[in-house]
Specification:
173 residues; Hyaluronidase domain-like; TTHA0068_sf; DUF309; globular; mainly alpha
């Protein structure tokens, strides 16, 4: 089947539309399974979610930059994306359309990923219902907690990881 963290990502993506949480979930999974591969399909999906987070906050530069990177990775990982139950051709079209919208400064609207595996979709719908999330509803609501979630984040671990990486790099030089 599919990794539990991927299903959790899809539940938040289509349920409460908490793209920041989507990023957190897949980043943790990626770091535990394929940490040195910055061209991983997981990284492409993470960047996509981050782009939508930025777009909803009207950070068009951040949204464009991360979506361009995400599209570049996802285009190279079409087989892996297909194996994750997504229609790669439709995803590519949807993301390119979204990129144009962002470049024009267009208003954010909800995004639904083209899930083609009916069992995956049903599992996600069930998990959404068990969490009290609607499935694929509009997220154009002013839920400030979700829209500005990064402001509430405890960055202690992020700062520590960056310092550790910097120290490791210095030791290698």
């Amino acid at each position: 089947m599919y990794p539990d963290k991927y299903i959790e990502f899809l539940v938040h993506f289509h349920g409460d539309r908490d793209y920041f949480e989507c990023h957190e979930i897949l980043e943790e999974y990626w770091k535990n399974t394929d940490p040195n591969n910055k061209k991983s399909a997981w990284v492409g999906l993470i960047l996509m979610a981050v782009s939508f987070y930025h777009h909803r906050r009207e950070n068009f530069n951040g949204a464009e930059r991360t979506l361009r990177k995400g599209i570049g990775i996802l285009d190279c990982r079409a087989g892996e994306i297909q194996a994750l139950g997504l229609d790669t051709d439709q995803l590519k079209k949807d993301l390119k359309d979204r990129l144009v919208l962002i470049q024009k400064g267009g208003k954010y609207s909800s995004v639904n990923l083209p899930i083609i595996d009916p069992l995956l979709k049903e599992k996600c719908i069930q998990d959404c219902a068990s969490r009290g999330f609607p499935w694929c509803s509009d997220s154009n609501f002013p839920d400030k907690d979700i829209v500005h979630r990064h402001k509430r984040r405890d960055r202690t671990m992020v700062i520590k990881e960056r310092l550790d990486a910097l120290n490791q790099k210095k030791r290698q030089e």
